[in-house]
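Collaborator request, handled under Task 6.
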Amino acid sequence: MRIIQVATLLLVFAVSANAQDFSTPKKTFKYLLKCIEKEDIENYKKCWSERALEREGMYSKLKNNPKKWSELHDIFTGPQKMTNLQWNDEKTRLKASVKAPKAKHGGIGAIGMVKEEGEWKMRNW
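Structure tokens returned to the collaborator:
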């Protein structure tokens, strides 16, 4: 019985350690940065709103030309900080400035996010 309890606890811990947390804009953005750092295209895709994926085109570019990761690395180098958060009235859309003092050309500049089914996803940059 004790072995089953320990195994269950380990399984729960392993599942929760690997789960993505998109519950806040900052958590989604932090996870996006990790995906870029690791060049993890499948989890990078999960950070984006389905509607925005093709419109922004970066997923297709990364999938068809892995060298495109270097462009993202240049933009997202060093610490990133979301500032100047602007919400719509329903708190389902967000525009934010992104400060990245060590990134080439000052980093991405600004991002847009949307809340879909309780999760915050990237909408544009």
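The cover message to the collaborator said: "The helical segments are 2-18, 25-38, 41-46, 50-56, 58-64, 69-75. The chain is about 45% helix and 20% strand. Please let us know whether this matches your experimental observations."
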